[in-house]
Amino acid sequence: MPGAVIKSPLPFPTYEATTQISVVQEIDTEDQGPQEVEVYSGMAVFDQSSRHTFNADSKLTVLSGTIIIQGDVQTIGSLAAIQGYVKIGDEQRTIYRVSKPTAMGVVFSTEIDLR
Q: Per residue in 6-35, pLDDT tens?
């Protein structure tokens, strides 16, 4: 069951989306154990600049980059955030945080911080 992407009516800088990525959500099921579902596959803006941030336990965490996807990437199930990883070429990076900025009440993009 693939995820859905709801596109915003506002313009998005598609000329900056030059990286082919795949977002995989990990779903915990009671009977079958963890399952992996690809919720997005396509072009995205990828920024490799690293940043330092504090998590909920006040521990320093190093983020290895940010992915920006046009529109609203829908998750599978009732989870508000995507738990899983992003495949960028042969690399696999863990998702740290997902944010969805809005403009005029519509989700403009999905921004994923990578660990």
A: 665 667 778 788 899 999 998 877 788 788
Decide: helix, strand or coil at residue 14: helix
CA of 33: how far to CAs of 24, 63, 78, 81, 102, in Å? 16, 28, 17, 19, 34
Name the pTM for this structure: 0.83
Cα dihedral: 20, 33, 5, 84 (round 10): -50
Q: Are 93 and 115 in contact (CB under 8 A)?
A: yes
Number of other CB atoms surrounding residue 46 within 10 Å: 19
